[in-house]
């Protein structure tokens, strides 16, 4: 695979469209060739006029060439732009596919706004580079060679003079073009930062407003806006230099050729018609040079974006999560076993230090411990969001590292710590875990989670939108919605991360009873900070600094474990 940002990587995007691009290049060359022979016809017409013979033939051919050239140019523009759109569509499809499947460790490190910018903004820059830029560059080179050959047939001395002047363009382009690429990459990085900043701010609007931090957030985003502007200016400056040198060199070449050619004509070593044809070629050169300049600038801009797009292609994804239409795994609730499980987040002290304990199938186990003890981390390992650095996790006696992630996750329903609802309606949120759920099943899940009252109060009932991240619901309603979603999944294993933390006493009690009842159908593991859920548990695992400190029932732990007793006596496990 080509390195991100390399020309090879850019070509890879164009490769699937090589036939259309080749056709388009062919048309471009044809149009250029027709332009290339026009000065020859002009020379012919001038010659015939001098001799007094008919010029009708050459004029007719010239007219046909002009019309055909215009038609071909139109067709070409359409072909190129359609291909550009297709390239962008493919890049966006690939990026979206990969971003949704990025591994959790990668996602935990990357600001979503920057990742989004790669799909929206970087891909747009690639648009013209992978098609128009490529064709213009190749066409520029080939037409340039064509013009040089034609000029060589007219006068070698004048060609040599023209060359010297044009050499300047080559030197300037070699120096300037890599700088355009760097400037574009910097500008795109800044666009990514703007996305990341806004994502951060808009994702926490209430915190921003409550802290009166609008000015600070605006200033931070404006800094990135300014960076993008400055980088854009640098790119614009270099592009201007290239165009200026391109244009000036043509004019210089024209004047020099006119002067020197004039001398040749005066001393009779060159015909006037030859000089005029040669001068027309010098002017004609402006077109391939402009093509080259614009085309290579576009390519450099594309390369700046290709680097950022290619980075995503290099990020590891979860390749084993595709399971379209595969039903949840049915069967008796499985036992869960952890054997010597060790884990550390990148660059952090170990979060789990060789944990071992068993959860019998069809029971309810509560994990308790001080904040940061490693409870949520354990859930992440159970679902293979992260992999342990040592030890084994077994579900139903099977080492989950031998199963695909899809298979592991199909057994499990998970209610996250902050129970996020997804933008959309209440119904969409419920069906997210179980698209096939019947109206009766939905009604039952709502009844159990005591959401039925809320639904009847809402004018649009189940079709009420919940807003971004479910902001139009209360914290407790959001939590109950997440639990209802998990129940509809009818999982073998139910993981509840402090799922009842935001519920009022009545709802909490009701849900605790539901959860206890569920243990008959699935293995329930819950992270608990409150006593009511813990008391009912068949087993309680007390974690401390990534170690299992004690395992037992509420009664036995109150008697035997000091930390548990302390937890039970304080707000963590509220009043007995
Ligand atoms: N994604 C992450 N990247 C790096 N470190 C993390 C990450 N998630 C958690 N940690 C760290 O790992 C340790 C264990 O965190 P974990 O979330 O498992 O604790 P917890 O017992 O669930 O705490 P709480 O009860 O407060 O939710 C903590 O020190 C935490 O700072």
Automatic annotation (TrEMBL):
A single GO molecular function, which one? ABC-type oligopeptide transporter activity
The answer to whether the entry has keyword Nucleotide-binding is yes
Keyword Isomerase: yes or no?
Answer: no
Residue ranges of every copy of the ABC transmembrane type-1 domain listed in the record? 22-301
ABC transporter domain: residues covered: 336-570
Q: Where does the record say this protein resides?
A: Cell inner membrane
Question: Transmembrane stretches, by residue range?
Answer: 59-79, 133-152, 158-177, 240-266, 278-299
**Signal sequence range:** none
Q: Which GO terms describe its cellular component?
A: plasma membrane
User: Which keywords label this protein?
Assistant: ATP-binding, Cell inner membrane, Cell membrane, Membrane, Nucleotide-binding, Transmembrane, Transmembrane helix, Transport
Q: How does this chain sit within the bilayer?
A: Multi-pass membrane protein
Q: What is its main location?
A: membrane
Pfam families named in the record: ABC_membrane (PF00664), ABC_tran (PF00005)
InterPro entries registered for this protein in UniProt: AAA+_ATPase, ABC1_TM_dom, ABC1_TM_sf, ABC_transporter-like_ATP-bd, ABC_transporter-like_CS, P-loop_NTPase, Type_1_exporter
Q: Which family does it belong to?
A: Belongs to the ABC transporter superfamily. Siderophore-Fe(3+) uptake transporter (SIUT) (TC 3.A.1.21) family.
Name of the protein: ATP-binding cassette, subfamily B/ATP-binding cassette, subfamily C
Q: Which organism is it from?
A: Amycolatopsis xylanica
List the taxonomic lineage. Bacteria, Bacillati, Actinomycetota, Actinomycetes, Pseudonocardiales
């Amino acid at each position: 695979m080509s390195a991100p940002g390399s020309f090879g990587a850019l070509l890879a995007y164009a490769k699937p469209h090589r036939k259309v691009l080749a056709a388009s290049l062919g048309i471009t060359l044809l149009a250029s060739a027709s332009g290339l022979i026009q000065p020859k016809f002009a020379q012919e017409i001038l010659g015939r006029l001098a001799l007094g013979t008919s010029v009708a033939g050459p004029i007719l051919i010239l007219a046909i060439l002009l019309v055909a050239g215009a038609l071909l140019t139109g067709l070409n523009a359409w072909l190129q732009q359609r291909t550009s759109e297709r390239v962008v569509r493919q890049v966006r499809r690939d990026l979206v596919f990969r971003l949704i499947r990025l591994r959790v460790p990668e996602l935990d490190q990357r600001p979503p706004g920057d990742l989004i910018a790669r799909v929206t903004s970087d891909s747009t820059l690639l648009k013209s580079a992978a098609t128009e830029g490529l064709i213009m560059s190749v066409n520029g080179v080939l037409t340039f060679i064509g013009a040089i050959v034609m000029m060589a047939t007219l006068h070698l001395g004048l060609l040599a003079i023209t060359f010297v002047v044009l050499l300047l363009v080559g030197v300037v382009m070699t120096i300037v073009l890599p700088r355009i690429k760097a400037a574009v990459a910097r500008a795109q990085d800044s666009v990514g930062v703007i996305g990341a900043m806004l994502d951060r701010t808009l994702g926490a609007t209430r915190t921003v407003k409550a802290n009166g931090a609008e000015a600070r957030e605006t200033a931070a985003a404006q800094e990135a806006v300014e960076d993008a502007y400055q980088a854009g200016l640098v790119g614009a400056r270099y592009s201007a230099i290239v165009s200026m040198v391109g244009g000036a060199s043509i004019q210089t070449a024209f004047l020099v050729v006119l002067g020197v050619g004039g001398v040749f004509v005066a001393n009779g070593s060159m015909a006037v018609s030859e000089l005029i044809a040669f001068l027309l070629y010098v002017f004609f050169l402006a077109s391939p040079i402009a093509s080259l300049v614009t085309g290579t600038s576009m390519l450099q801009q594309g390369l700046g974006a290709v680097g950022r797009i290619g980075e995503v292609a290099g990020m590891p994804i979860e390749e084993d999560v595709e399971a379209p239409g595969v039903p949840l795994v049915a069967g008796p609730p499985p036992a869960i076993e952890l054997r010597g499980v060790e884990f550390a987040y990148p660059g952090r002290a170990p979060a789990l230090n060789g944990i071992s304990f068993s959860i019998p199938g069809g029971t309810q186990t509560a994990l308790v411990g001080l904040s940061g003890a490693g409870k949520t981390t354990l859930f992440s390992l159970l679902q293979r969001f992260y992999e342990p650095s040592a030890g084994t996790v077994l579900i139903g006696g099977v080492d989950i590292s031998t199963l695909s992630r899809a298979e592991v996750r199909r057994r499990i329903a998970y209610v996250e710590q902050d129970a996020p609802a997804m933008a959309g309606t209440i119904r969409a949120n419920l069906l997210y875990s179980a698209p096939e759920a019947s109206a009766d099943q939905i009604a039952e899940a709502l009844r159990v989670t005591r959401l039925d009252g809320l639904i009847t109060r809402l004018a649009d009932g189940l079709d009420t939108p919940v807003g971004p991240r479910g902001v139009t619901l209360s914290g407790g309603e959001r939590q109950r919605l997440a639990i209802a979603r998990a129940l509809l999944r009818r999982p073998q294993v139910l993981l509840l991360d402090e799922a009842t933390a935001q519920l009022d006493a009545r709802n909490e009690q009701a849900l605790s009873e539901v959860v206890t009842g569920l243990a008959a159908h699935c293995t329930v593991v819950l992270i608990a900070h409150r006593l009511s859920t813990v008391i009912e548990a068949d087993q309680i695992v007390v974690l401390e600094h990534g170690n299992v400190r004690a395992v037992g029932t509420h009664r036995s732990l109150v008697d035997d474990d000091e930390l548990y007793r302390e937890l039970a006596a304080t707000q963590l496990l509220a009043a007995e």
